Amino acid sequence: MVSDGEAGVIVTTDNSGALYRIAEAGAAETLLRAPGDMALSLLRAPDGRLWAGTGNPGAVVHIQNELAEKGELLSDVKDFGVESRFGRIDWESSGSGSLAFSTRSGNVAKPDETWSAWSKSRTSPGDVESPAGRFLQWKAEFKRGGRNESPRLEKVSVAARQVNRAPQITQLNLGGAPAQPPQPPSQPGSGAPSGRPDQSSGAPPSRPSSSGDSGDGGRISINWQALDPNGDSLLAKLEFRGKGEQGWLLLKDEITANNYRWETQSVPDGEYEIRLTVDDSPANPPDEVKSATLVSETFMVDNTPPRVVPGRELKVERSGRGWIAGVTLADDAGLLSNAEYCVDGGDWQGVVPEDGLFDEREETLRFRLNVEDLEPGGHTLVVRFKDREGNIGATKRAFRVEK
Ligand SMILES: [Ca+2]
Ligand SMILES: [Ca+2]
Ligand SMILES: [Ca+2]
Fold this sequence. Notes:
The protein is mostly beta strands. The protein has 4 domains: 2-63, no CATH class; 70-162, Sandwich (Jelly Rolls), CATH 2.60.120; 168-179 and 214-301, Immunoglobulins (Immunoglobulin-like); 307-401, Sandwich (Immunoglobulin-like). Helices cover 0% and strands 51% of the residues. It has no helices and 30 strands. The chain has strands at 2-3, 9-12, 18-22, 28-33, 38-44, 50-55, 59-63, 70-74, 78-94, 97-106, 126-127, 133-144, 152-162, 168-176, 209-210, 219-227, 235-242, 249-255, 259-263, 270-279, 291-295, 299-301, 307-308, 315-319, 322-330, 336-343, 349-351, 362-368, 377-387, 392-401. Strands 8, 9, 10, 11, 12 and 13 form a 6-stranded antiparallel β-sheet that branches. Strands 17, 18, 20, 21 and 22 form a 5-stranded antiparallel β-sheet that branches. It has a 4-stranded antiparallel β-sheet with strand order 1-2-3-4, with no helix packed on it. A hairpin with a 6-residue loop joins strand 17 and strand 18. The protein starts with a strand and ends with a strand. One calcium ion (CA) binds next to loops.
């Protein structure tokens, strides 16, 4: 410990290599820090100069009461949120002397071996030479000017622009139309077979899952979710193709919403796929636009009603005291879903196929007419039927009851 005149006393601690000035008010100020050295003793020479004896390594050093020739200031690590390209580094300073800046960048918060090396330093503002990264750190080297004058750094700024990253499609759903066809009406206590066969059992390809658009046949609503890491606005494009075809046909482009209703009457019945492309063109220059693409599952477009199979038209035959009817139906694209009949404009009554399930493109119906004794004379049986897309077909047969 030595006196520093009116400024207080200068002390050293045993192993930090630091010199502190303690003013009379009791506040300590670090004068010098020399890592690795241990200042063991201090001496104020008669000429006023300050000397220190150090250990590890042992030396006698002269401590000048002036500013160091140069010094360094290391910034905090600056987080730009996402990977960014750096532009200009700029600073404002006062005082005399010079300042030089270098930078380094990386993608983890704490500088490590994955970070770039320090760039070569620059003495005037200009472009940062470190590679793109999420994090940046700068280092300023101060060189003193006059004997006791140092530059003072007032402000530093670094320009950065996010690196454009591709959007991501997180969901693509095809909402079908119509919803599950309504159950055929059946009279309580009627002799017609009851119970609803399981229509969901495996019947690829899937039709679009229903979304409450009942009665809205001929349309498919397409919904999607996409996001962009930069928060860019997105544009979507939809294309379609028949299953097994090569080229894609444009359905609609420059869609800003995230849904679209496709009027499928414009295409033949069959199996299709949809391809969704989203890009961030609204927010980026043309050569930096990024996009993402997703192809839907195969789905069925069916806008044609089932039909009666030629040669197996509706027939009505006497059977004991009653009547038996039969017909074979087919759908060219999808599956049949239900059938019902009525006699002479009476109530509609549900029918299931002979094999018990509507699960094929062709089904044979054979059913006993649930009618009380029919009056002698002419009568009409009507059978109507639906496919799974809700397209309705019908057929009829006139028959006579003899006296
Ligand atoms: Ca983007
Ligand atoms: Ca059909
Ligand atoms: Ca069947």
